């Protein structure tokens, strides 16, 4: 009898423990679910869209990329993710420059570009061999370098951003357009600059209309060109239209037929883009690409106009870190000294 009573006591104890355990789990689960619900309710408010910005850092002009990055980061509160693209032998130097300077707080990824993808696609003859550097063609391969983003900004390295990059990112691309560029005919003061330095702003300046392949395109030589130094790209549409393959096709055709060259006006990267994107691109606000600052050391914009500009581009031979150049004070204010002491400003020779 005593044994039976002891067994009943044990069973009662176990039952009480089991009930307590069940009650605890229910209460605890309710708390966890409530916390999870609270977290989910906060997510839309806390989530901040990431703005991917692609910029190349070439060995001989790495200081340009760092100045551009500094100007972008300093003029926005947006969540920027910099994709800094370089060749294999420069990657460690890129990382050192960022991590051992005022740029150490930026959010960035270093991406290696393999120049082998360009094999057989570039003509060796050019009046400006610097335009044949592999990184000049990174803009053709954006979907291969950037995977998790729907929309991407690409910038040449010789730019300075004075506005909030969020504004450029918010550019609405028309349905079916894979990219947005600056139309050369929309550039403020373009006529004045053309008169001073003889710039081209039509397809005639980039394509050789003596060639049958170019004539057969049916594009008027007086069509306004655009500058691909600033691009807002829809990566999904880019892939859908096989833009990279189209660009490679025209690169190959140029190798075979010499359809354009940098001596004509713009450069070997611009011409195939003019063909592929003809009539199929959105235009960005002209103030987001004030260019030609590097075309002549004698042509200057007014100071008031430069203050209004959102982005300045020293395209051309005369770079702001070298001599001679114009408006280099605006660029130099964003310069980040090289921790390795390799890149130096040259304004005295």
From TrEMBL:
Protein's UniProt keywords contain Glycosyltransferase: yes
Protein source organism: Galeopterus variegatus
Gene: GLT8D2
PANTHER family reported in the protein's UniProt record: GLYCOSYLTRANSFERASE 8 DOMAIN-CONTAINING PROTEIN, GLYCOSYLTRANSFERASE 8 DOMAIN-CONTAINING PROTEIN 2
Entry's family note: Belongs to the glycosyltransferase 8 family.
Source taxon at top rank: Eukaryota
Lineage: Eukaryota, Metazoa, Chordata, Craniata, Vertebrata
Residues in the signal sequence: none
SUPFAM superfamilies tied to this protein: Nucleotide-diphospho-sugar transferases (SSF53448)
Protein name, as recorded: Glycosyltransferase 8 domain-containing protein 2 isoform X1
Gene3D superfamilies assigned to the protein according to its UniProt record, in alphabetical order: Spore Coat Polysaccharide Biosynthesis Protein SpsA, Chain A (3.90.550.10)
Keywords: Glycosyltransferase, Transferase
InterPro entries: Glyco_trans_8 (IPR002495), Glycosyltrans_8_dom-fam (IPR050748), Nucleotide-diphossugar_trans (IPR029044)
Entry-linked Pfam families: Glyco_transf_8
Keyword Glycosyltransferase carried by entry: yes
């Amino acid at each position: 009898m005593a044994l039976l009573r002891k067994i009943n006591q044990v069973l009662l104890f176990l039952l009480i423990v089991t009930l307590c355990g069940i009650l605890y789990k229910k209460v605890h689960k309710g708390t966890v679910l409530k916390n999870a619900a609270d977290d989910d309710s906060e997510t839309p408010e806390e989530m901040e869209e990431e703005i991917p910005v692609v910029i190349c850092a070439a060995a001989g002009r790495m200081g340009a990329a760092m100045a551009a990055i500094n100007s972008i980061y300093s003029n926005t509160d947006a969540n920027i993710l910099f994709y800094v693209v370089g060749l294999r032998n420069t990657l460690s130097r890129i990382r050192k420059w960022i991590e051992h300077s005022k740029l150490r707080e930026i959010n960035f990824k270093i991406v290696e570009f393999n120049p082998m993808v360009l094999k057989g696609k570039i003509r060796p003859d050019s009046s400006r061999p610097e335009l044949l550097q592999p990184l000049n063609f990174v803009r053709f391969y954006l979907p291969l370098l950037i995977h998790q983003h729907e929309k991407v900004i690409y910038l040449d390295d010789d730019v300075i951003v004075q506005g909030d990059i969020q504004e450029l990112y918010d550019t609405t691309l028309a349905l079916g357009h894979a990219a947005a560029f600056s139309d050369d005919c929309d550039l403020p003061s373009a006529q004045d600059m053309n008169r001073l330095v003889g710039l081209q702003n039509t397809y005639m300046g980039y394509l050789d209309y003596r060639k049958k392949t170019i004539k057969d395109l049916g594009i008027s030589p007086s069509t306004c060109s655009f500058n691909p130094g600033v691009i807002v790209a829809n990566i999904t549409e880019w892939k859908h239209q096989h833009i990279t393959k189209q660009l490679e096709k025209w690169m190959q055709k140029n190798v075979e037929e010499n359809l354009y060259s940098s001596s004509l006006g713009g450069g070997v990267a611009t011409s195939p883009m003019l063909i592929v994107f003809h009539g199929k691109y959105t235009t960005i606000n002209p103030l987001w690409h004030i260019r030609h600052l590097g075309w002549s050391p004698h042509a200057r914009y007014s100071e008031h106009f430069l203050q209004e500009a959102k982005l300045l581009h020293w395209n051309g031979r005369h770079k702001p870190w070298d001599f001679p150049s114009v408006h280099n004070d605006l660029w130099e204010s964003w310069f980040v000294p090289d921790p390795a002491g390799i890149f130096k400003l040259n304004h005295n020779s």
